[in-house]
Design brief:
alpha+beta; 3 domains; 11-stranded mixed beta sheet; 20 helices; 11 strands; globular
């Protein structure tokens, strides 16, 4: 169970609210343009989609989550279609099955963020371009560019993908190369142009899609500056607070772009580029480390387990009245957790209703584990946690005694922080089902030196769960995911690359590696999260399936040869 409220509440719902109210002008220009540039901090596609679901459906978040799951199923079909352009159908089925069972693909498709939604149009664009390579037509190339432009409405990191793929057209197409390359880029730019035009008319600056390049470039430098030589922050809130101190502008602390938004973004970009120019060897060493980290496991991804389910959906669980079954105040927590608190700095508020924590840097380490929360087996509960975040990102997980994750809530960096003494605040609701557990634990993990506080935590009993019938099927899927999560995918993909290179299928390999290489190259230059490069996890399974099918083909061929030899020997003896 992935709880999705935090990401939407902080990032996309505020951008969609004006359109939900019918205020088109504020949706397009923001409340105080051109000074407040928050409205162009993210591409408009996902807020537009969220507003559409909110205006037409009673439970927009749940319905949007189901929509994303459906779209992700279509992405799996596209993986199969891309694979059979070069390989037999058996390999296509295997690649599609690997994607369907991948836990990172399932995890990000459940989060209400646009990253997983870019995958189908990007894969469809690749499929059209591959077919255009085999049989060029203007329609295929133009449709490919339009799909890439559509993806840019969701994520700005797709912007340079059309020019990147145009290089493949110039390299591999046999005729009218420049024409097709130009059509690809032009059709992509045409779809993006309404965003660019809006940005120019409202803010009088050329911003192709959205702001943020300076911010992620700065944060990428900061997260590798372990000695803090450049006095930069690796978090959104840290960037805002640092600028407020540096320029003696307390109003800068309220957000990344809501005061002098475009000017501040330009300063971030210029400062980052100056550091890169002064320390090129150090910077490109960090780029190499980020590229390597992309091929490793995602630290944000929860461990695979058979998560107990409820017959109630998440929205119903959040809204239903329930009976209080357990509660713990900050004072009770501090008195019951002497061992847990040894590595943390903490302070209790004067009214004793909040306890604030400051942790050491790390990549999502376990920071706090609450004392056990008693539950009944196969019962649905909801935890309510009043959370305030000053800096960094924290993740709240509900686990059983064996550390299996039953539910998880991602709380992003706060974006509405007024100053360090008035942090963002929200009551996080975490629905979960207990399964066979008799006690559960609330676990806090985080990164980038998070500073956060919480108040009284309550557990409410909603009712009995009723999905035990699905356990055998889900147990089978769990076993398959355990195998896939064992780390074999990347070595097999590398082996597939070597096999294709050895049998001189370089052009096929170039088409399959184009997008993974693009996302690795672009994302390694700045701050990186694995969700930014989710597309590559749909394409690498095609390469990983190559050595498996190649080995199966060899075994089949040897088996047939051995059968023929036995047949010949039998006939010889009978004569």
């Amino acid at each position: 169970m992935v709880h999705h409220g935090g990401m939407t509440r902080f990032f996309y719902r505020p951008l969609a609210e004006p359109l939900i109210r019918g205020d088109i002008k504020t949706f397009l220009a923001g409340p105080n343009s051109p000074n407040d540039a928050t409205v162009i901090g993210h591409p408009p596609g996902y807020p537009l989609l969220f507003a559409l679901f909110s205006r037409t459906l009673s439970t927009p978040e749940t319905r949007l989550q189901l929509f994303q799951l459906t779209v992700d199923c279509f992405a799996v079909v596209l993986v199969f279609l891309v694979a059979i352009e070069f390989f037999p159908a058996a390999l296509g089925f295997m690649a599609a099955a690997l994607v369907a069972l991948a836990s990172n693909v399932a995890f990000y498709s459940l989060l209400l963020i646009p990253d997983a939604l870019i995958v189908p149009p990007v894969l469809a664009a690749l499929l059209l371009l591959i077919r255009a390579y085999k049989k060029p037509t203007v329609l295929k190339v133009v449709a490919c560019g339009a799909l890439l432009g559509l993806s840019c409405w969701l994520r700005a990191n797709i912007l340079l993908l059309a020019p990147f793929l145009a290089i493949l057209i110039l390299t591999f197409f046999r005729e009218q190369r420049w024409r097709y390359a130009g059509l690809l880029v032009a059709s992509s730019l045409l779809v993006i142009s309404p965003i660019t035009l809006r940005n120019y008319l409202v803010f009088a600056h050329f911003v192709p899609i959205s702001l943020g390049s300076g911010m992620v470039l700065t944060e990428g430098i900061a997260e590798n500056d372990l000695e803090n030589r450049f006095d930069l922050s690796a978090t959104d809130v840290g960037v805002s607070l640092g600028e407020a101190r540096k320029f003696n502008r307390p109003d800068y602390a309220t957000g990344l772009w809501d005061v002098d938004g475009i000017e501040r973004e330009k300063r971030r970009t210029n400062e980052a580029l100056a550091i890169i120019k002064a320390h090129p060897v150090w910077y490109f060493s960090t780029v190499a480390r980020r590229a390597k980290r992309m091929l490793e496991s995602d630290p944000l991804l929860p461990g695979t387990t058979i998560i107990p389910q409820s017959h109630l959906n998440t929205a119903d669980i959040e809204e239903l009245d329930a009976k209080l079954s357990w509660s713990q105040t900050p004072v009770q927590f501090l008195s019951s957790q002497p061992e847990t608190l040894k590595g943390l700095k903490y302070s209790l508020a004067e009214n004793q209703e909040q306890v604030e924590f400051t942790s050491s840097p790390g990549v999502y380490p376990e920071l706090v584990r609450m004392s056990e929360i008693p539950v009944d087996a196969y019962t649905t509960y909801k935890l309510t946690v009043p959370v305030k975040t000053v800096q960094g990102r924290i993740i709240l997980s509900v686990t059983d005694s064996d550390h299996n994750v039953l539910a998880i809530t991602i709380t992003p960096d706060p974006i509405n922080v007024k100053d360090s003494s008035v942090p963002s605040e929200a009551e996080v609701v975490i629905p979960f089902s207990s399964g066979s557990a008799r006690k559960v634990f609330l676990v806090v993990t985080g990164s980038s030196t998070p500073v956060w506080s919480f108040g009284t935590i309550n557990s409410f009993r909603v009712g009995k769960s009723s999905t035990a019938f699905s356990l055998p099927f889900r147990w089978s899927l769990y076993q398959a995911q355990e195998i896939l999560n064992s780390g074999w995918l990347m070595p097999f993909a590398l082996l597939g690359i070597l096999i294709l290179a050895f049998v001189r299928r370089g052009r096929d390999l170039a088409w399959l590696l184009a997008m993974p290489l693009y996302f690795i190259l672009v994302s390694s230059l700045t701050h990186m999260e694995h969700r930014y490069i989710i597309v590559i996890y749909y394409l690498l399974p095609i390469l990983a399936a190559v050595p498996v099918c190649y080995l199966a083909g060899m075994l089949k061929a040897n088996f047939l040869v051995a059968g023929q030899r036995l047949k010949v020997a039998f006939l010889a003896r009978s004569l």
